[in-house]
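Box 3.1 — From sequence to structure: Haloacid dehalogenase
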Amino acid sequence: MKYKYYFFDFDYTLVNSEKGIVECFLRTLEEFNIPAKPWDEIKLTIGMPMMDAITKVTGLTDEGKKYQFLLAYKKYAAELMTPNTHFFPDAIATLKKLKAAGCTVAIISTKTRHRIEEKFQQDGQTHLIDFIIGSEDTTASKPDPQGINMALKRTGADTKEVLYVGDSLYDAGAAKNAGVDFAAVLTGNTKGEEFAPYPSVQMINSLSELQ
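Predicted structure (token representation):
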């Protein structure tokens, strides 16, 4: 492999969690008596900082009301998220290849760390990840580079040794701001041409193409 350290986003990069996320939003919208949004509109918020996604879906701007919505969302997530989250077909094989090559593999995501851990535990694949940095570990969301910078500090890696893999402009921005190489995987909502303003060393259709 070309790099020593491979850092990944989670949703739409390693897994398809669309059903879980959209269902949680729909249940919470119903609880708050807010008109339901179309599925295709809600899924476009995947990868956004959660409070921004809530504003986008609900129209709420009051921070207190958004927080109450978030608490209700988390209640449904505990029931619905992991059972409706599935690894992309080549994700596990790719992670196994990286570990076999002696690479350090980490996840840096705006999703909560414990929810990501739950998925790896459910599938018996915790050995494939060295560590996870989730939303509860940071105070700033992507494209702020805080999560990647934390991983760099934790590993002692030089930025030239690191590849960050993600599916969104938030991921691309975080990699750029951290000064690490970026690989765009086209398994999310972002089209290839949308990545043009950001430097990327690879643009791939699936993780099996990762170098």
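Summary of the box: Strands lie at 5-8, 15-16, 86-87, 104-108, 131-133, 162-166, 181-185, 202-204.
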